[in-house]
Amino acid sequence: MKVELLAYTPDADKLVSAAAKLCYAKSDISGLMENLTPDKVASFLETLSKLGHESPVEHASFTFGIEGVSRALLAQITRHRIASFSVQSQRYVEKSGFDYITPPEIAAIPEAKELFEEEMRHDAEVYDRLREMLIKKHTEAFLAEGMDEKEAIRAAGKKANEDARFVLPNACDTRIIMTMNTRSLYNFFELRCCTRAQWEIRALATEMLRLVKGVAPLLFSAAGPACVKGKCSEGPMSCGKSLEMREFFKGI
């Protein structure tokens, strides 16, 4: 897995403080920004967090580049609807010899790992064979319609991807560029940094939190699973490790 913070709102801590303070101030916006010293920003954001006043944090957004993750993760992350996603297409990108993600629990059992890798090779072979059959069919059809040979082959390859991709597994790798505002990230971290989240998206969420803390430490000082700043939200399904989780996320 590779995660990069590609872009973010500059001086996000100060911007959010100004947006929140504007609601209660007579001062003009430039005056608000000038008067917000680092100490005032820290104090104001701490107050905002305690009050649970989150609408101002929507003014700050963060864009991530994500690689080396599975299509299984993609199905989970796109459930977070207050976000923008651009995803590598299996329709337009030919996936012969695709990379794949091996679950750690499978990798830990030699026989299971061997079986898993065998199946990945088989899926790749079937994908290639299906593409060849479909390309042949579509090329002939395009030539019959009067398309020149070079154009027909190129168009047939793209069209073949549409149906050949149905054999690709959830383990198949993908790439994502994703943008979320701070409020959406709070929700994302609360759900996906939790020990009950699936291992791959939990690893992604933890790395994303580490990255945003590096550029907006005050905004994300209390971010993480629900138990970091309050009661566990999992009820009887709690892992029972609230103290351990708080220490871990304070340290990242």
What distance separates the N and C termini?
Answer: 18 Å
Number of domains in the coordinates?
2
Q: What shape does the CA trace take?
A: flat
**How large is the radius of gyration?**
24 Å
CATH domain class of the largest domain: Alpha Beta
Structural class: alpha+beta
Strands, total number: 4
Q: Number of helical runs?
A: 10
Low-pLDDT parts are none
N-to-C SSE series?
EHHHEHEHHHEHHH
Oligomer: single chain
CATH topology of the largest domain: Gyrase A, domain 2
CATH architecture of the largest domain: 2-Layer Sandwich
If you had to describe this structure to a student in words, what would you say it looks like?
This protein is α+β, with helices and mostly antiparallel strands and 252 residues long. It has 2 domains: 165 residues, Gyrase A, domain 2, CATH 3.30.1360.170; 64 residues, no CATH class. Helix content is 52%, strand content 12%. Strands 1-2-4-3 form a 4-stranded antiparallel sheet. Helix 1 crosses helix 3. The longest helix is centred in the middle third of the chain and has 35 residues. The two termini are 18 Å apart. The mean pLDDT is 94.
Describe the SSE topology.
Elements: E1 2-8, H1 12-22, H2 29-35, H3 38-51, E2 61-70, H4 71-77, E3 84-87, H5 104-107, H6 110-144, H7 149-164, E4 173-181, H8 182-192, H9 199-215, H10 242-251
Antiparallel strand pairs: 1-2, 2-4, 3-4
